[in-house]
Specification:
645 residues; Helix Hairpins; Beta-Lactamase; 5 domains; 22 strands; 20 helices; 5-stranded antiparallel beta sheet
Length: 645
Amino acid sequence: MNQPQAREGSAPRESGLRWRHEWVSAVLETVASLIVLLDPEGKIAGFNRACEELTGYTAAEVVGRPVWVLLPPEDVGPAKAVFADLLAHNFPNRHENFWMTRSGERRLIAWTNTALHNQDGSLAYIVATGIDVTGQRRAEAELRQLNETLRTLVETGPLAIVGMDLEGNVTAWNRAAETMFGWTAAEAIGRFFPPVPEGDRGFTHENLRRIRHGECLSGVERRRRRKDGSPIDIAIWNAPQRDASGEITGVISVIADVTDRKRLEEQFRQSQKMEAVGRLAGGVAHDFNNLLTIINGYAQMALDIAGPESPLSEAIQEILRAGDSAAALTSQLLAFSRRQVVQPRVVDLNSLVSGMDKMLHRLIGEDIDLVTVLGKGLPQVKVDPGQFQQVIMNLAVNSRDAMPGGGRLTIETAAVSLNPDFNPGPPALPRGEYTLLIVSDTGKGMSEDTLAHLFEPFFTTKGKGKGTGLGLSTVYGIVKQAGGDVTVSSILDQGATFRIYLPAVQETPASDAGDRKAARRTGTETVLLAEDDAGLRKLVHDVLRSHGYTVLEAAGAEQALSLCKAHSGPIHLFLSDVIMPRMGGRELAENVIALRPDIRVLYMSGYTAEALPRAIFEERGFTFLQKPFTPEMLLERVRQALEKA
């Protein structure tokens, strides 16, 4: 800075010195920095206004006192060491220590020091220039804490967090990303986002283009791949990453693994689809059973009338054989739709499997090894034994067909405890104790597309004429009707494994012992018949009338109740279809029993979702006749119902 020129004489010189002193004093008093002048003993010789404002002390209060009085006790020692270095002309560029204000507040000061020397070179004063960095250090500490918190969240959270540049190359890869996708950070960083299949890179490039324009991506779901090649479904949230100037430099991607959720959604959709198909199949089978009962019934009556020597005998027998095949088909449809009346009882699954050993060997052939592994301490299950034998046979046939060149079929049983936290099992099953049947083979296996349709009726991968497509759908229906569930896992060319879960019961297995009295075919009793299908009603009427029974026919509930009230004589048996318009067989039976308490009841149906449990049937003296039935079966069940105690 230019200074005024001094004139001749001492007065101008003194004036210039005074001007300089005032100028320096003005600067010292107005700068925002703390400036302290210390003598060689460490006493304060100068204390500017910034120091006064910070500490609350005036210059008059501190000048002449050691500077240590402004420091907290723990900082005095380190500060004296720094001062000793300054006296030795070792001037550190920077050091920090706390000052204590009049109010007791601690303020952190960053100091820069220099020296003023006498004309002989000796140290006159140390000039310490300080900046209050308390707020800055606090902000830095908070920033470090925030960064540490963010780092912890990023590294320990369940969501994959991935940073990428605007070309899609990975710049950050957290621990969850390693777990989710299989690549380590070292393997992923610097590469194009590795989980993206080659065929779907267009989506990523389009997403990056939108990111460059400041757009975000929220919750978009895509199919990706893990390092081992297995598929993974993910939901993606993307946002632009900006630098300090606000320029977009990359993308931050937060990724959630939704594979399990998608699987459950697909299972739910599949369950809904199967339920709808089941209702359709059950309805078709029910109506078809009425027709089959009529066809088979009149064919049997025609055969009885014609006699074995008749030229029509062989043709009628072919009709009956075709009818039996059709009846077996409807039985499978009913099992799939879970509308079949079953006769469950408590059984030991190990005994049931063991009892099928010879049958299974004949079924699968000599080129397939049958291995049976029966678990110990197996809980009992409650199933229809005949139906469950059908389950095992259907699975065995399925495995046999998958191993045309031979292989190994393994049937295992085990006790399993399902718990959603440790061993969840199929999602449709509640926690509890189950008996597990595992049927596995070493066959051709199945693709994901095949697995998705496996239990649908009429779905088959076999050639024309080699399968109806009802085997596995029947398995599904029987297991579901027993209160269990079935899962399947398979890899192409590595075989398939079916797991059937059945609820454990704490009951004693029922005995097969028991005498059955052969029912006679004729009778003289009166039967009240309620059936809405005219053709089937006529068949039942004709069969019963031809064997001595008196039959009162009703096409529905109102007519049946009218006949029940109007008939003057006794009515010994009420024979009714379970499902009828306006009033079903169950409700109608209750009304009939109210009018005639001693009447016996015989239900008949192709299926009955509305049927009473079998225990109630037996308790109330009810009997059941499954459609389709033959005239002999009808006559036998009528006598059983009439003679039941």
